[in-house]
Amino acid sequence: MMSENERRAEVERKTRETAIRIALSLDGTGSAEISTGIGFLDHMLDLFARHGLFDLRCQASGDLEVDAHHTTEDVGIVLGQAFAEALGDKRGVTRFADARVPMEDSLAAVALDLSGRGLLNYNVQFPAAKVGEFDVELVREFLHAFCANAGVTLHVDLVRGSNTHHVAESIFKGTARALRAAVAIDPRTAGEIPSTKGVL
Fold it and tell me: Which of 7, 65, 76, 172 qualifies as a FRET site for 32, CA 20 to 30 Å off?
């Protein structure tokens, strides 16, 4: 049985387009060292670590002369792989969680299941197409890649929001808060896998 202080992973992925290295601890303090070459993504990952209480180190380089798509998606892939590895067999986790997180004008509602079935249901319309140079359609690509590789079923609904930056923040903070609750060890079921199938 994996103890909480062992719920960590390091994953590296290299392709012709990107090189990503991530170290993740699920039972951290929210410390983050992020360098992707994409300022807005760095900001979102810092929020993800802080509000999830995950310790996260992420070093990424990619073909940013093309655009931010490959780097953003591949960071999602590797973060998802690290998340799945750190969770192990998910023994004792709470499993289901949700969060409604406001960011000034914006409110995101997030619900998730550490189901082993990667799925993203994403109901978000951003007020604008970009924050600075960052294409906000990449938020969906990042979350899709994360869910597919982490084995997480994630539903994201934007309740309201008029500022594109704030919308993205509420989504990342909400996802982090829900993941934080879902990975927490439930003392009443510690040592058991929370599924009638006996496996997740």
Answer: 65
